Amino acid sequence: MSYFLIPITNLIIKQNLVFKDTIIIPIYQTKQVEECKEIYPEIYSIITTNQTFYNHSCEYLLNIAFVKTSIQHPCDSDFELAINIVNRALDYIRFSFCRLDLRDTLPGIPGIVDNARYSFFYNSENDTLSKFSLSPYFYSLQPGIGLDLDYLIDYENEDIYKIFNSSRTDEVYTEYRYILSRACFSFHITDLNRCFCYLFSTVERMGGQKYMRFQDRKKRIISYISNSQHQYDVLNHQFYFYSKEVRTEIIHKGKNLIDMIPLNKINSLLQNLLLLIHDFCVAVISSGITTMAALETALNQKTSFFEYKVPSDEIENVTNPNLGFLDSKKHVFFAEMPNLDIEFTLKQGNIIYLPVNSLNNFYKYYWNYVYLDIIEDTLPAQAEYPIIEWNNIKLELDEQFATFTAYDLDIVLNTIKLPDVQEINARSAIAIIVDEPFFKDTTWDFKSYSTFADIICDKINHGLDYIILSTLDISQRNSLPSLAGIKDNIRFAFMLDDTENIVHPIPGKVFAQYCSSPNSFTIKKDFCIDDVLLFNAIFNTRNDEIAMLCKNALKRVVDCYYISDYTIQITYMFDILDMLDPNDTEGKYLKSHVLPFIAIDKTDYHQKCKTFKMLRDKYRNPLIHYGKSIYDLTTNQAEIYDIFYQLELIIISYCKTVINLNASSFTLLNIELEKIKLILGIN
Known about the structure:
By secondary structure, the protein is α+β, with helices and mostly antiparallel strands. Helices cover 48% and strands 14% of the residues. It is globular, with a radius of gyration of 27 Å.
């Protein structure tokens, strides 16, 4: 047999780990290599007869995952499938030894070593070991330096190991084993809101495949993992808080977790959701049930054992601003934008992007500031920008500052004159974000600061959402803006102290495996807003549930651009599509609730329905319900790009249309939907 050899860094183990489809060997541990001599002689021979490979593995403390294959001449997709197998094996380690509030201890991403992505292949036909470079894995925000398991684990006797290592292929095991793998991806989502939404959408996939209200689904989930009425009541109370309070505020009202809940409670909330997914999936798999029909019967039976009551105890008011860890004051922050090549000063929302060496343009900023300061004090708001003569100096606003205020330019001037800012701005563009909250008091810890750095930098990145969506397609993801604030694999944000004219660094996390594209993201001087509807969908100031739904959906599409794993990327795009109809967790009515908004006429509607059904049947269902990798479905990268594009087109078109309708609630949107159906003739 031949082997794929997938390197794994950021993981120290003292034993060989044997899984169904792979064996992970710490080659830097002599004892473990010697153990292979009798048990796995072929693997032992591969290791010991390839000295360069052995030395390389020891130098980088590589664990090597050996994946058997009958293939003799692999292509890129074969390597990706092998890496997917190794990733699934690592799910056991992630669930057993990692926590969402301790993400720094995650094992490395398979295949990535020292910012390069590669694998080895042993060809049994000619007894050769070759190194293969793989497509780069850009923008991964896996924090920390890894996991050190400096002790022996009796893993083969653990129930969780048996579940992850099962040879079962039935539909129940396949689906719920996939849900466990999906939940593991939450470790890589640093944005707290997105992590919550991702985990909650994962929960919504549990409890059977029958269409039902989420409240009924919730009853099934908590019933199945409860052993007493008391445990049921505790879980019910917890779930009620998550679904009715937190989910509603985050998804439908656009609030932020950090504005509502103390940071330590946010981490507990996320960890509890992860444990809920784990407990339910483990319970279902351990039951031995193999068909969805039998599972449906078991869920109904278990639900009847308990009495459901709407929680009557006073639950935590998550909308209380005193609960969060941020203050209500407004501050100014900035971060470095390493690969942003911007030819002018750009304002997007409350974020200002400055080119390299902006100090050279100090007087341009200054005179435009003077101009705006004058007209804001003396002229009516609706006035055009006239030329003003002041002290024989003729002042006129530069066109690029048409959306700026005097306050904006005052911030720019106060920022670029600081020596610390000049040092950073000499090597890269920077982004200034204004009127953002900071900590309520002076007490802090590194976890709080690093979380806050992620929050600020994430907002800065999303200030470029319109430009990304309007100028790039997914095939150009290697030219995305680098993630803000990361220099030499360490993230920093900065706060401006205008009273002392200094900057305070806000230290972020170490992202040891972060690698950005070497390509620059260029914004030319002639940039203009061509798609007004898209721009308004992203930057409108509305805070109703429809506006927030559209903003969140578009933000998540951009997030998908930064996901290197195509299986996760496409799956997440289907999740975004599903969220457009939040009352339908199964997608039963998604077609009739979404597609009319983007159809030109009746014929176009029916064609879009065919495309929609094809996408769900051919790709979504195998990915979500059968645990397939995208490479199990297609090895054609152009086809993967096309799947993404078609999903993106539906989501963006829907958001642009419904924002323009000015419907502020789903009730009002449903009224507009019926009007459109009548016009299209599809009632």
